[in-house]
Design a protein that fits this description.
By secondary structure, the chain is of the alpha/beta class. The protein has helices at residues 28-34, 61-76, 88-98, 117-137, 141-144, 148-154, 167-179, 181-187, 219-226, 247-257, and strands at residues 5-9, 13-17, 39-43, 82-86, 105-108, 204-209, 231-235. α1 (28-34) links the parallel β2 (13-17) and β3 (39-43).
Length: 261
């Protein structure tokens, strides 16, 4: 069974990849800004959203997901699309670039650039706390996120402006987070590290939320050493998942990044 995806818009293909525990609808806030200029393909990663479970077959999770992503490219006839991702999706986008399967790469707070071991264990603790909270509040989460204060509590680790996240989006995200439990546990079992080399001929944009509490922007210094030809940007006022924090800014970054080729 193929990964779940949606396609819309017109123009060069731009594949968008969400982060761990999220879903393809994470990009909803920017789709209307991108679709007039790009054929946008949003994907549910393995074990997330409507996609089949994550199966690693003994491989590191990010490698197994990268292989599934390339299989999807082949199914859709995509040789070298533009690829962008947030967090785990950013790591996968960079991996596609290293495999020679991306025309350009854009990463929004991409995972895999730990400045020290404590950063991984901090992120893991945040996800475990979110899991415990989701389990306790499960029957009441819909009512909780109806209010801005409730959305702020539920999404404090990943968004800086919870008032811009609609109740409907927050409810869907909460349900998706619970559905992705098995995949999330597999992914955070050990640190994800970006170890590939993206050719200098592949334009790379890496943008970090200035208010990212999950993967602090100090990790951008590590990314700069590993991807020295990348263009680095700061996203003012944005958290770890910046799409709803600043849709216009993020859409501009994605359009500019995917026009660099």
């Amino acid at each position: 069974m193929s990964l779940a995806y949606e396609r819309q818009g017109d123009g060069p293909e731009l594949v968008l990849l969400h982060g761990v525990g999220h879903r393809r609808q994470a990009w909803n806030a920017v789709l209307g800004l991108l679709a007039p200029h790009r054929t946008v393909i949003t994907v549910d990663l393995p074990g997330h959203g409507d996609s089949p479970p994550l199966t690693t077959m003994g491989k590191q999770s990010v490698h197994a997901m990268g292989e599934e992503l390339i299989r999807l490219f082949d199914e859709l006839g995509l040789d070298r699309p533009h690829v962008a991702g947030n967090s785990l999706g950013g790591a996968l986008a960079l991996g596609a670039g290293a495999r020679g399967r991306a025309a350009t790469v854009t990463g929004l707070s991409p995972a895999g650039f730990w400045a020290g071991p404590w950063q991984f264990y901090y992120a893991k603790a945040v996800f475990k706390t979110m899991q415990a909270a989701a389990k306790r509040s499960g029957p009441y989460v819909d009512r909780l996120v109806d209010g801005t204060a409730g959305r702020a509590v539920v999404n404090a680790a990943i968004v800086a402006r919870p008032s811009r996240l609609s109740p409907e989006q927050a409810k869907g995200d909460a349900a998706a987070f619970v559905r992705a439990t098995d995949a999330l546990n597999e992914i955070i079992a050990r640190p994800i590290a970006f170890e590939g080399t993206v050719p200098a001929s592949v334009p790379v944009t890496i943008a970090w939320g200035a208010k990212d509490r999950l993967l602090p922007r100090s990790q951008a210094r590590v990314a700069r050493r590993q991807v020295p030809h990348a263009r680095f940007l700061l996203l003012p006022g944005c958290g770890h998942v910046p799409m709803t924090d600043a849709p216009e800014l993020v859409a501009r970054v994605l359009l500019e990044g995917s026009a660099a080729a």
